Request: fold
Amino acid sequence: QCAPADTSKTYDYIVIGSGAGGIPIADRLSEAGKTVLLLEKGPPSSGKFGGTMKPSWLQGTNLTRFDVPGLFNQIWADGNGVACEDTGVMAGCVLGGGVAVNSALWWKPHPGDWDRNFPDGWKATDMAKSTDKVFQRIPGTTVPSTDGKLYLQQGFDRVSKGLDTAGFKQLDKPNDYPDQKNFTYGHAAFFIEHAERHGPLRTYLETASARTDKFTLWTNTNARRVVRTKGHATGVELECRNGAGHSGTVNLTPGTGRVIVSAGTMGSAKLLFRSGIGPTDQLNVVKSSSSDGATMISSDQWINLPVGYNLDDHVGTDIQISHPDIVFYDFYAAYNNPVAADKDAYLKSRTGILTQVAPNLGPIAWTQHTPSDGIVRHVQWQARIEGNTKSMGSNFRKLQVSEAHVVTAAMTITQYLGNGAISRGRLTITPQLNTQVATAPYLRNATDKEAVIQGIDTMRSALSKVQGLTWIKPTAGQDTTAFVNSIPTIPASRNSNHWVGSNKIGTDDGRSGGTAVVDLDTKVYGTDNLFVVDASIFPGMTTGNPSAAIIIASEKAAERILALKAPTKSRIVRDV
Ligand SMILES: Cc1cc2nc3c(=O)[nH]c(=O)nc-3n(C[C@H](O)[C@H](O)[C@H](O)COP(=O)(O)OP(=O)(O)OC[C@H]3O[C@@H](n4cnc5c(N)ncnc54)[C@H](O)[C@@H]3O)c2cc1C
Reply:
């Protein structure tokens, strides 16, 4: 049921969004004795926190589709009530955000992910303590099944033979060597424990929730905008969702309260726009909208910052191979119609193929490439085995995995171009107040493209040593440049779901021509108690999948924010 917020109750911190950024900081702030309200627009996800979305075979258990690794790819088959409806690209709008719906890939960041992208105070040495804290709580594993076995490894084995021959070094546990990201490979690491989704939901959110006197969580509650006078926030306006949650305005502790916006790269930009913070053209779109126009904060209080610029994502380029030994497992079919033995193994002993993340990920490899501008680009290669009933030609044998699931198999290897990439895009808002990728951040710079081509040539050469392998994409004789040019540089073809950057951290204040939206304490320029803590503050892309880095940044931000003095009245007036 939709309930109005109690206006007499105030909070030291209101955290908006319960994803990789929001959950850890909400936990740390409540641990420090502050009263914290965590707002999440989506419904509960994991069974541990009241989630209910599940196939019939999980009825009677405390598990949902978000908990069982073999069901993680269900978001691509059925995103209803799970995927955000107001973002032009895929994002999770449930409790946990991206870390409830993602593939749980879990990488300790390369030192260069901080050193090359972030300003002073956020370099690798500054982040070491936060990194240790995160990896102590969430160590991750390369072997999710409780019997210590990895299942259906034929794809891994065939590809790794090629990598070995080409001189790649296999790392037993890649997270023990975060700085070794060149000509290395290994099994994928996941934040999975006891064969269930782990990560912030099962660590930070559990400890926060145990502090019942300090921590409050409202799901199905959308933050419409921050209520502020000049640069000082006083509360957050709310909207119920899904016939539940809270409405009205929730207030901060007068004078000392703070708002932390952790609504994701798309969601945080949108919230700032609706709160009168951003480029004037975007604020005018909100001002003209039927939903917000009449009640939007007046234009003399707008804060002109480059929100939405600096948008980044891994540039995804898929290559595809097949090999007669590769075995496909139909995880999609397992949702409604699991193989009985696999279901039993999972439910009875947390063993078997369903403990592994769909769609059978790995190996993961890393290379580095230096195009003509001399700037080293980091590349991660992420293999997955897919069934493909279309356009597979006669090169594929029919493969009988179980009586129910007959398919052909191929291995797609996605090249992620990350750390070092130069191209950036822009996110804007539509009159319906949906966010959209107005300028895609993919290969707008010629040297980024050179790096992609160099990388694909390296991988083609490495895998050419694998006997019996057939190239699907690019085809055997195809020129690599022509292949790369044939793939459009739009989200539909290149999206990696790793969006960062719309509220960049930095010392060059965006109000006076700089590029930064938040300062080194993650405080929005021109405000004294409004912060952004999530992927959107990242100046550039990480080497691997970014969730661990975002959680580490959240730990760091908690430390810095707690060390700040409360605002004084004179500063509030001066800042705007
Ligand atoms: C399908 C998919 C697969 C991925 N796979 C991986 C992977 O395997 N490994 C990895 O490291 N990364 C992966 N990622 C990326 C990773 O999950 C994200 O980078 C990360 O979750 C971003 O963290 P965040 O805190 O910035 O935002 P999110 O985690 O997206 O959290 C934002 C939260 O804010 C909520 N919200 C938004 N607006 C409002 C509002 N106005 N009011 C209240 N709440 C609001 C949203 O519902 C959401 O819960 C994947 C992402 C997706 C979508």
